[in-house]
C-alpha cells in the first residue's frame, strides 16, 4: 500500500487552517474564540507550555459555534479542487492517508477520493480530543492498530517530522509543492514538540 500525509502533501495548503478561517467567515460567533486561540498559541509556540494536543483542543473550541457536518460538506464542495494533480495520477484503491488534521474533516473524503483515513479523533461539536494528536510517532501507533502486519510500499510527506513512518516504507518521498524527491534521512525535524 501507499501511505500519504495530507496537508501540503496531496493537498495544496493546510486544510485545517483553511477550514478554521472558512468558519470564521461563515460564522461570526466563532470570532469570539480568537482571544482564546491566540493565548493558547502563544503558550504552546512561544512559551512552550503544554502539548500539541492540548493546544489544538483549545483551538478547536470554536467548533461550538459551527454547524458540524454541514460546514464540513460545504467546505469540501469549495475546496476539493486543491487535491494535487500528482496524487490523482498515482492513486490506488488501497491508499492510506495518515494526518494530524481532525478526522471529522478528512473522513468525508474517503468515499469521494477512494482512500482510507487515519487522523486525529476530535469531536466535531466540542473540539475535544479522544486520544493524542496524530503526529510523529503517534502516526506509526495508529497505523499498526489498523494494519498490524501492514507493509508500506511508498510513503509521501511534506515534513521530516514524519520520519517514523518513512522508516517503515520501502520508498519514501518528500513533497514540496509539486516537486517530489527521495527522502533525505540525514534531515531531521528540529525542536519537535508533540
Strands, helices and their partners?
Layout lengths: L1 E3 L10 H12 L7 H13 L5 H8 L8 H12 L5 H6 L5 E7 H4 L2 H5 L2 E5 L16 H10 L5 E6 L5 H4 L2 E8 L2 E4 L12
Parallel strand pairs: 1-2, 1-4, 2-3, 4-5
Antiparallel strand pairs: 5-6
- Number of helical elements: 9
Based on secondary structure, the structural category is alpha/beta
C-alpha termini separation: 27 Å
Which strand order do you get reading across the main beta sheet?
3-2-1-4-5-6
- Give the overall shape: globular
Proportion of strand residues:
15-25%
Corresponding CATH superfamily: HAD superfamily/HAD-like
**What would you say the CATH architecture is?**
3-Layer(aba) Sandwich
* Main β-sheet description: 6 strands, mixed
What is the residue-averaged pLDDT?
A: 96
CATH top level? Answer: Alpha Beta
Helix content: 25-40%
Quick one: how many beta strands?
Answer: 6
pLDDT < 50 stretches: none
Radius of gyration: 17 Å
Features:
alpha/beta; 9 helices; Rossmann fold; 194 residues
Q: Could you walk me through the main structural features you see in this protein, from its secondary elements to its overall organization?
A:
The longest helix is centred in the first third of the chain and has 13 residues. Strands 3-2-1-4-5-6 form a 6-stranded mixed beta sheet. It has 194 residues and is an alpha/beta fold. α2 packs antiparallel against α3. The two termini are 27 Å apart. The model has no long low-confidence stretch (mean pLDDT 96). The protein has a single domain, classed as HAD superfamily/HAD-like (Rossmann fold), CATH 3.40.50.1000. The protein contains 9 helices and 6 strands. 29% of the residues are buried. It is globular. 38% of the residues lie in helices and 17% in strands.
Amino acid at each position: 500500500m501507499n501511505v500519504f500525509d495530507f496537508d501540503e502533501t496531496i493537498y495544496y495548503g493546510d486544510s485545517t487552517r483553511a477550514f478554521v478561517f472558512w468558519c470564521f467567515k461563515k460564522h461570526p460567533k466563532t470570532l469570539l474564540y480568537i482571544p482564546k486561540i491566540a493565548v493558547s498559541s502563544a503558550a504552546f509556540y512561544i512559551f512552550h507550555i503544554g502539548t500539541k494536543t492540548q493546544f489544538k483542543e483549545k483551538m478547536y473550541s470554536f467548533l461550538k459555534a459551527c454547524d458540524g457536518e454541514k460546514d464540513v460538506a460545504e467546505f469540501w464542495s469549495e475546496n476539493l479542487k486543491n487535491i494535487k494533480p500528482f496524487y490523482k495520477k498515482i492513486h490506488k484503491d488501497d491508499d492510506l492517508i495518515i494526518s494530524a488534521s481532525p478526522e471529522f474533516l478528512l473522513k468525508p473524503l474517503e468515499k469521494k477520493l477512494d482512500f482510507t483515513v487515519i487522523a486525529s479523533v476530535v469531536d466535531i461539536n466540542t473540539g475535544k480530543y479522544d486520544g493524542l494528536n496524530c503526529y510523529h510517532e503517534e502516526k506509526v501507533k495508529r497505523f499498526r492498530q489498523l494494519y498490524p502486519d501492514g507493509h508500506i510500499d511508498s510513503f509521501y510527506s511534506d515534513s521530516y517530522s514524519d520520519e517514523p513512518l518513512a522508516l517503515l516504507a520501502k520508498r519514501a518521498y518528500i513533497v514540496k509543492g509539486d516537486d517530489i524527491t527521495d527522502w533525505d534521512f540525514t534531515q531531521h525535524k528540529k525542536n519537535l514538540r508533540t
